[in-house]
Amino acid sequence: MPKALISVTDKTGVVELARTLTKNGYDVLSTGGTGRLLQDNDIPTTEIAEFTGSPEMLGGRVKTLHPRVFGGILGRPNLDGDEFRTHELEPISIVVVNLYEFEKTIRDAGTTQEEAIEQIDIGGVSLIRAAAKNHEHVLVVVDPNDYDAVCTRVVKGQIDASFRELMAARAFRHTAAYDAEIARYLSSNEKFPEQLTLTYRRDALMRYGENPHQDAAHYRDSAQTTEMTQLQGKAMSYNNIADTDAALQCLHGLTAPACAIVKHANPCGLAVGSSLQDAYEKAFRTDPTSAFGGIIAFNQELDADTLAQILDNQFAEVIVAPSIDANAPTIAKRSKSLRLLTVTDREASKSKLSVTTVSNGALVQDVDTAELDDGDWSVLTEREPTEEEIEDLRFAWHVVKHVKSNAIVFVRDSTTVGIGAGQPNRVMSVRIASIRMNEEGLGDAGCVMASDAFFPFRDGVDHAADAGVTAVIQPAGSIRDDEVIKACNERGLAMVATGIRHFRH
Predict the structure, then answer these.
(1) Which tens digits make up the pLDDT trace of 19-31?
(2) What's the burial of 297, exposed, middle or buried (CB within 10 Å: 0-12/13-18/19+)?
(3) What whole-number distance in Å separates Cα of residue 457 and Cα of residue 481?
(4) Nearest CA to 290 among 394, 420, 402, 399?
(5) d(CA 139, CA 94)
(6) pLDDT at 347 over 60
(7) Rounded distance, CA 45 to CA 47, Å?
(8) Nearest to 295 by CA among 331, 327, 259, 326
(9) Separation of alpha carbons 395 and 111, rounded Å
(10) How many alpha carbons lie under 13 Å from residue 249 in its C-beta half-sphere?
(11) What residues act catalytically?
(12) C-alpha–C-alpha distance, residues 194 and 330, integer Å
C-alpha cells in the first residue's frame, strides 16, 4: 500500500483528508496528537514509533527524525531500489505536515523566550523540506486550504508532476516564512542584520496596481496586528490602500478629535476640532478641490451626523475610523461606491523600520517617529512666538512630517490652511501653500508655517510674510541661517528651530 505521513499542528480538515486517503488505498502514518485524533474518528493509522521501531524521545521532540522515515521520503524507487531492499525502506508518497505555532506564540506579550524557543519546529521542517526536495516522487501538503484539491486528485488519480511541483514551491515558501519569523524574533536587538529576512502573506489579488496596466497584490506583514474591516463598497484598490495608510499615519499621536484628508499620498487637509464633525469641516476647507475623491480618516468613532456631512459635501473613495456608531452604515448606503472601513490597533502596529525597494535592492531606515516635547526648540528671532502661535507651530510640525518634500504647511487654529508639497525647491512650495490658502479664502488672518527642512535662502520667508505668516518652525542648519533670521526680524516674524529634519521622499 502507498503510504501517507500526516503530522499536523493545525488539525483543520485533517480527518476528512485522512479518511479520503484510506478509502483510496493509502496506509496512514501519524504521530502523537494527530494519530489520536484520527484513531478517535475510526481512521486506521500506524504510529511512527511502531513504523520505525524507535520510541519518541525528549518529550516528543524526537520522533520522526529516523532513517526509515527520511529514507522513505527521500528515496527514489526507480534509482534506489537496492538500498530500499537492503535497509527495508518503504516509500512514503504523501507528506502532510504543518508546523508548531511559533508566530502565534510570540504574538502573546507574556511569552518568555524559553516558551518561544520550544515552539521552533525541527522535525516538521525537515519532513517538509525532504518531501519538497523529492517532489518528483512525493506530494507535500502544508496548508489545510489545499486539502480539497488533494482529495479530488487522489480520488481521480491525478497527482501529476506539475501538481507536485506546485505544492513543493508552496512548501518551501512555508518553511522560508517560518524561518524568517524565527530569525526576526531572535534578531530583535539587531536593527540592521547582515541579511534581512522579511515575510508577507498574500491578502488579496487586485484588479490592477498604481495604473491599469500594472498587475498587483496586497500582502500582509505577519508582525503587524492592525486589522481593517470593510463594511461596504467596492474592493480596495492599490492606491486606496496606500492612501488610507498615509491618512492613518497622519493621525498617529493625536488624541483630540482629528480628521485627515489625503489625496495621492499627501494630506490636503488635517485638523483638530471640538468634535469629529468640526475637525472634518475645518480639514475640508483647506482644499475642497483636492478633497474630492480623497481618503478621509478619523481617530475616534465616526458618528452618523459627521458621515452625513461628508456625503453632502463631497465624493470620497474611502472613509476609515476606529469604529462607527450604529446609525452610520444606514447613512453610508447613500453612496454605494463609498468604501467604509474600521481599523483597530493602529497605534500598536506602527512599523519600526521603513523598507523602500531600489533597482539593486532595498533601502531600510527607522520610521520617522520624532515628536516635539516642551523645550525641544530654540527661538532664533528677536520676537518669541505667542501662546497661540506655539500651539499652531506644534500642530504644523506634526503635519509637515507627513507631507512630501519639499514640504511647507500653513496652519491656523490647529487646522491646515495651505499645503505645498513635492516641489524641487522650497520657495515654490511656499508659493503653492500661499496660493491654495488665498484661493480658498483662508488668507484673511495670520497663520504659522512649518518647513520640513531648512530654508537655503531668505526668499521663502519673505514670500511667507507676504502671505500673512507670523511665525515659523523649521530645523535650521543652513549656511545662510543668519540671512533667514534677519529676514524674520525685519518682517516681525517669530522663528523657532527644532534641529530635526522631516524629509519625506
Answers:
(1) 999 999 999 999 8
(2) buried
(3) 8
(4) 420
(5) 5
(6) no
(7) 6
(8) 259
(9) 38
(10) 21
(11) 133, 264
(12) 53
Residue whose cell numbers read 531600510: 364
Q: Write the burial class of residue 120 (CB in 10 Å: 0-12 exposed, 13-18 middle, 19+ buried).
A: middle
Instruction: Give the burial class of 361: count Cβ atoms within 10 A of its Cβ; 0-12 exposed, 13-18 middle, 19 or more buried.
Output: exposed
Q: Give per-residue pLDDT as tens, 380-407.
A: 999 999 999 999 999 999 999 999 999 9
Higher-scoring residue by pLDDT: 454, 89 = 454
- Half-sphere exposure of residue 154: CA atoms within 13 angstroms, side-chain side: 24
CB burial of residue 113 (10 Å; 0-12, 13-18, 19+): exposed
C-alpha–C-alpha distance, residues 438 and 271, integer Å:
18
- Whole-model pTM? 0.85
Q: Please state, rounded to an integer, the average pLDDT across all residues of the chain.
A: 90
C-beta neighbour count of 215 within 10 angstroms: 10
Domains and CATH numbers, the chain: 3-186 (3.40.50.1380), 231-344 (3.40.140.20), 378-497 (3.40.140.20)
Q: What is the DSSP letter of 60?
A: G
Sign of CA dihedral 107, 108, 111, 114: negative
Residue 338's contacts (CB-CB under 8 Å, 6 or more residues apart) are 232, 233, 311, 316, 317, 318, 319, 332
Rounded to 5 degrees, φ, ψ at 345 are: 60, 30
Q: Where are the alpha helices (DSSP H) in 187-267?
A: 238-251
Q: For 93, how many CA atoms within 13 A lie in the half-sphere containing its CB?
A: 14
Secondary structure element (H or E) that encloses residue 25, with its range: none
CA dihedral 371, 376, 378, 383 (to 10 degrees): 80
d(CA 120, CA 114): 10
